């Protein structure tokens, strides 16, 4: 059985995939599956995807079956720019109000709930919706969007709408980085496909360094073509994201899972197991 590889279809993870030699990988029969995180999470839990950029929350829910690619993630120390709560009211005034949550996310949905419950002390009602800024705000007091849905919502700069960046709120409250996505592999695939997984690990790690080395400029040409916007915006966006998974990132994730557990958003605390840790420095 060839390897199925999940690729988050938002731009935030692109630095880890941009320079992968997909043709070479696909020659083995492997395929890349671009999808929103929530769909990749589901397919990976069912065993239809073997390796994927997935929501860190979903890793936490299935950690006994997954291992992490070392030193790869989508994280920030503070502002992320693409995980945004758009609200008609100040965040402190959302108690008892209704918040529409994007159906594409897992990490950020729980991050929002944790922040509101633990740090702000409000209890809104939540409803999950297909991401659509106008429809969500037409019938709810606030909405949570991620990825390009959030970025494009931010570009609207609507007065009367408060915009909260969850990465920034998390950092203010905890002083820790937040990791939104990890590169996880199913343990059953490791036994079957070790050499190909090592090749992917090396290529992703190299893609991370190479995109960073030119300030993401070659990659941004492709992003501009697909999404528009200003080159300076994207440069600032990718420079604000941190693609490592250091001990400090794991500390941030552990804090996140402890709070999620405290408020019953997750059933148990995850274990962190790594694939091929010895290659982490490359
Ligand atoms: C930075 C982002 O990180 C993401 C957020 C995720 C989530 O909330 O589950 C999952 C993967 C990442 O794509 C983003 O989508 O904007």
Automatic annotation (TrEMBL):
Enzyme nomenclature, EC number: 4.2.1.151
InterPro entries xref list: Menaquinone_biosynth (IPR003773), MqnA (IPR030868)
UniProt entry tagged with the keyword Lyase: yes
This protein's pathway: Quinol/quinone metabolism; menaquinone biosynthesis
Keywords, in A-Z order: Lyase, Menaquinone biosynthesis
Reaction(s) catalysed (UniProt annotation): chorismate = 3-[(1-carboxyvinyl)-oxy]benzoate + H2O
Domain of life: Bacteria
HAMAP family documented for this protein: MqnA
Alphabetical list of PANTHER family matching this protein: CHORISMATE DEHYDRATASE
Membership in a protein family: Belongs to the MqnA/MqnD family. MqnA subfamily.
Functional description taken from the UniProt entry: Catalyzes the dehydration of chorismate into 3-[(1-carboxyvinyl)oxy]benzoate, a step in the biosynthesis of menaquinone (MK, vitamin K2).
Protein name (Swiss-Prot/TrEMBL): Chorismate dehydratase
Organism: Fictibacillus fluitans
UniProt lineage: Bacteria, Bacillati, Bacillota, Bacilli, Bacillales
Primary gene name: mqnA
